[in-house]
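User: hey, got a sec? need NCAIR mutase (PurE)-related protein folded
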Amino acid sequence: MEQDQLLKVLQDVANAALTPADAIQKFGNESFEELDYAKIDTTRTRRTGYPEVIYGAGKTAEQIIGIVTAMKERQKSILATRVDSKKAAAILKTLPFLDYDATSETLIARAKKVEEVGNIAIVTAGTSDMKVAEEAAVTAEIFGNHVTRIYDVGVAGIHRLFAKLEIIRQANVVIVIAGMEGALTSVVGGLVDHPVIAVPTSIGYGSNLGGMTPLLTMLNSCSSGISVVNIDNGFGAAYNASMINRLISEAHE
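Assistant: Yep! Here you go:
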């Protein structure tokens, strides 16, 4: 248990706001906080360097409210992904300190002071990939990374990519997001000297197969230095990119 949390528990006991028995239970479960429907991981930041994030799909508005309420006492930033607008509206009535981004479908509370490090470039093949891209961008930003957005530069008009190539090359990590056949990843991978993380999206016509076509294209890319995350997984790409970006930034210090 962190020192400030320990002090609060002791103060609550001294003020008779918490019984000694309840205090012992808190000490015993210091690695998580028990709710009826969830267990809040209270030591994730200490273990991994990153706070717990709420996956909103499949959770009710009331459950998310309860989880956020428990989490905000322990971590400075809050991120909930995959929260649709109807659910978000219900949550914001109770938790107005949260901000909702409709494009990425994320609910966030940012720490007042976040020192951005390094640079992650997020590159999309098309405008239709922006939902996944913004999930990645919001995630990377709340984890303290500087993010450069470069959208709609797919291979159908490859001159658009070349016009932004020098900006892309300045990033420590590049996240490439593409649907259809997913060819953009191989092109970018052959033009930069930093890690590339590929995100296949479910955007495309019938033979896109819900993202399976770009997934297989990216997995079979002939460009080296590319890693691939799951379909539409902007969050996972940003998490991985953030870890790489921080290692690079720390090495330059």
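Quick note: The longest strand covers residues 117-124. Let me know if you need anything else on NCAIR mutase (PurE)-related protein.
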